[in-house]
Structure formats: structure tokens, C-alpha cells
Amino acid sequence: MKERRACIIGNWKMHGSAQMIRTFFAEFFAALASHPAALSGIEWVICPPFVYLPHILENLHQLNNLTHTVSGSLGAQNTYSEATGAFTGEVAPEMLRDIGCQWVIVGHSERRTLFYEDNTRIARKFLAAYDAGLFPVLCVGETRAERETGKTWEVIQRQLEAVFAIAPIESLTTAVIAYEPVWAIGTGLTATPEQAEAVHLAIRDWIAKRDPCLAATARLLYGGSVKADNAAGLFAMPNIDGALVGGASIIAQEFFDIVKSAKARI
Ligand code: PGA
Asked: I need a surface site. Which of 7, 41, 178, 230 has the fewest CB within 10 A?
């Protein structure tokens, strides 16, 4: 038994519709009906676009009530760093909590590059989410050019330092860190289990320098082209505690199989 509970988070990005959600849960439930204990003990989360959060929550409640063994929960893909105010188009962490959301992704590379979120902005979002009682999923990772020029650790360290300069390291009791090499996101180019493990180990060492007890319990997820057929290899690594899954998380059977393959970690 590993002391860190496996955690699989589906990031739907800007995909989905009311109809797609009905189909997704019908298929997910059918998969579960034929393997009723497959997901027990594993934590899994779905992060849909904001407008579909209540739809997903309703389906998760139904699923959890029907099975009693499933522990699916709800996450958002983004939030803002203020609790309320004149911030047109933004959603506060408190609002996410208010509707039953538990998790929120912070610092995804698409937010960093397409929406110009820098380390300072990300750190403030992380802290606001944590203070509001959400579990932040902090994404860190290097671009291909940074990897090729040997800057992987330098970049990740900078991303971590920015956040934990203002947020307490104890936030890692509930928050998780997702290592997502930018070159592996949506490209089909997964990092090898060994490449991912090396970075996860470096992140764990970094945490250990600040709090040795937390280093043993903090959960580190891998993200970037995780699929049902490569998940088990990644989860077999000692420091990979789960995954942040994009494209494969909108296909019910595929997502179910990825969650199921984390069972080997229990
Ligand atoms: P991907 O996305 O699984 O489609 O590569 C991962 C992510 O962006 O979190």
C-alpha cells in the first residue's frame, strides 16, 4: 500500500456539451457496471468548462450514490485571485466552492502561453484558491527548447519558487503538483516514465528541503498525452502518483481505463 492516494484529474479544456455529458456518463456508468470495484480507492476528478460544472456535479452525485464505492469529484480549469469585485468575466474561488467544486487547475501551460499568465499571477491564483479551501492543481513544465538547452529544472524550480514564495508549503497537504512538459501536451509525445520520474524526484527533493514530512506525502501527477495504453507504465514509477489527462479524459472508456490502471499503486 502506497501512502499517497492515486489521483487522476481529467482536464476537458474547451470541449463538451450537455449532450456529450449525458453520453459520457452513460458510457462511464456502463464501464463501471461491468467492473464495479475497478475504481475503488482511487481519487478522480473531472474539470469541465465553467458552464458545465453543475451538469458534471449532478452526474457525479448520481454515480456516487449508485455505486457507493466511487469517489469522483469536481474541478474547475481556472479561477481568479480575488474573492469578489469588478472583474468582468472572472470567477472567484469562493464561487467555485459555493457550487460544490473542490479542485482547480492553476498555471496550465495553455494559460501561461495563450493568456499570458506569468508566475506572479499564477502564484496569486494558487494562494487565493488555497485560502478559499479549494485544492489547487499547480502545473509546471518546460518547453521543448528549454529541455533541449538543459534548462528543464531551472524553469520548474522558478515556477515552484514563485508560488511557494507567497503560499505556505503546507498547502501541499491538499494541493497537488502536476508536471506537464509543454512538448508533451496534446502532441502524442508522452515523456517516458523515466523522464517523468526524474523530474518528479527532483520536485520531491525540492519539497523535502522545505519540509521533509510533506515530501513523503505530497502528490505529484504527470500530464502530457497520457492514454490508457501508457498510463500503467507511468504509474509504475515510485514518484508518479497519478495523472492530469487532457484529450483522453473526454472519452469515457479511455478515462475509465486510465483511472483503473492507477489501481496498481494501491
Ligand atoms: P493532453 O493534455 O493529455 O491532451 O496532452 C494534458 C493537459 O493539458 O493537461
From this structure: 41
